[in-house]
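Subject: design request, 470 residues
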């Protein structure tokens, strides 16, 4: 039976610190216990360079005689806000149509002068009115600037003076074992601070399109979504977005945050264009796993597999071929396809990304140019068609499908096809009720579309309709 712990709320600015992190502090304090009193009280506020040179493991507050990160973190706490999303419900009475709360989460102020707040897309999704609750007690309406489902980020704007913004650190400089602090409004509580460490980097498999997550064991629960993950200097290193839970949706010490590197690019795009304009290379990537490694005869399970290369694309110009294994991009190790998509997605048009890849057991290098993603062109190759972020090929007897159609072999994360739930393994039998039997008829049917686009697909023995364009 789970024990419920009740915390005393002393003030609006009070912090609830996770007792689970006390184990970390206890271990460090145990090491300090044997030090002379002078060593234990040696910490004095100093410039960053001097702090880096000190041997004191944890900042020590000489006035209160306690170890504490409060002086560094308190500067950022006023920038952390609570976000409430409201939507309209329809009913027989007039007041049933008034906006009703439908979701709450957290957010953080990135630009105080402009009132810019970043939060999660899933916090604001489906809402038509948004309010922001500040640490000082002020409540203000917010305007939604834009959302990006692929990274689960959203940008709000408020018009208010006297705001505090958070400083942002480079998430590429993080290392496993760094201290991390999650701040937000979980489970109906007031602003709450929890501590942990960076458990891992480059994580994927959460179901989003662009994945390159920071993993932490700082306690994150419902309501923390959209709140900041801070380093020990109170700087933003990521936006908390999801957890893995063994049951009941509670905290099990496995939480994920969008790195500041990706977050800054997405927020910049949403502020400038109201949408994210991602780069493209003409290649579709899949994640290397144990099953694919065995199929390809490899003894590694980290990397991204080139599933397809569009004719005439930058990927083809770079010499990439199907089944090449990308192991490094832009001098960063590649854990999975999400690492590659994330790097390409935030690269400037025309940028050259150095690649290291494996082919037939040999390590090769090349440079991959990024181009602005076009309006989903239809590209017909000799053996495949690429369109709307998906790749299609003719059916083979080994596929075990008796009906005419074409097979979806890969779907690129963040693409139109991915957003509309087209899946690898689907068999497309018709486009707008026009039967297709091979890649040439599919390409012709897709190229002829001017308005709506509906695919008839066979999936797990059932016929379904996928609306790529409404």
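Subject: RE: design request

Done. Sequence follows.
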């Amino acid at each position: 039976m789970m024990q419920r712990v009740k915390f005393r709320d002393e003030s609006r600015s009070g912090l609830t610190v996770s007792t689970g992190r006390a184990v970390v502090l206890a271990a460090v304090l145990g090491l300090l216990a044997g030090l002379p009193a002078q060593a234990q009280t040696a910490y004095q506020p100093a410039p960053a360079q001097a702090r880096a040179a000190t041997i004191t493991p944890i900042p020590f507050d000489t006035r209160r005689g306690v170890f504490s990160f409060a002086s560094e973190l308190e500067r950022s706490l006023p920038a952390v806000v609570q976000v409430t999303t409201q939507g309209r419900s329809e009913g027989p009475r007039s007041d049933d149509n008034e906006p009703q709360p439908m979701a709450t989460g957290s957010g953080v102020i990135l630009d105080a002068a402009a009132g810019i707040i970043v939060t999660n897309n899933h916090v604001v999704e489906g809402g038509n009115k948004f309010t922001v609750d500040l640490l000082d007690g002020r409540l203000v309406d917010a305007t939604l600037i834009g959302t990006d489902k692929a990274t689960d980020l959203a940008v709000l704007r408020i018009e208010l003076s006297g705001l505090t913004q958070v400083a942002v650190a480079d998430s590429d400089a993080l290392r496993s074992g760094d201290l991390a602090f999650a701040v937000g409004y979980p489970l109906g509580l007031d602003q709450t601070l929890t501590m942990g460490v960076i458990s891992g980097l480059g994580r994927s498999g959460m179901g989003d399109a662009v994945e390159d997550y920071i993993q932490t064991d700082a306690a994150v629960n419902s309501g923390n979504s959209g709140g900041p993950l801070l380093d020990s200097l109170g700087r933003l290193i990521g936006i908390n977005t999801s957890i893995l839970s063994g049951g009941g949706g509670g905290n099990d010490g496995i939480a994920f945050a969008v790195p500041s590197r990706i977050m800054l690019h997405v927020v910049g795009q949403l502020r400038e264009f109201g949408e994210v304009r991602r780069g493209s290379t003409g290649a579709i990537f899949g994640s290397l796993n144990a099953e694919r490694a065995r199929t390809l005869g490899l003894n590694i399970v980290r990397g991204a597999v080139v599933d397809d290369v569009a004719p005439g694309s930058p990927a083809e110009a770079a010499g990439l071929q199907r089944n090449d294994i990308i192991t490094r991009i832009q001098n960063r190790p590649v854990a999975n396809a999400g690492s590659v998509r994330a790097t390409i997605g935030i690269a400037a048009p025309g940028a050259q990304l150095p690649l290291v890849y494996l082919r037939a057991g040999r390590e090769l290098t090349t440079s991959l140019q990024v181009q602005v993603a076009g309006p989903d062109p239809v590209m017909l190759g000799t053996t495949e068609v690429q369109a709307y972020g998906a790749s299609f090929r003719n059916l083979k007897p080994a596929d075990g499908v008796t009906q005419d159609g074409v097979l979806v072999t890969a779907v690129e994360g963040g693409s139109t096809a991915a957003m509309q739930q087209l899946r690898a393994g689907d068999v497309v039998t018709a486009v707008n009720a026009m039967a297709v039997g091979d890649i040439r008829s599919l390409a012709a049917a897709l190229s002829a579309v001017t308005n709506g686009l509906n695919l008839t697909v066979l999936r797990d023995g059932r016929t379904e309709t996928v609306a790529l364009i409404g």
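The CA atoms of residues 289 and 301 lie 5 Å apart.
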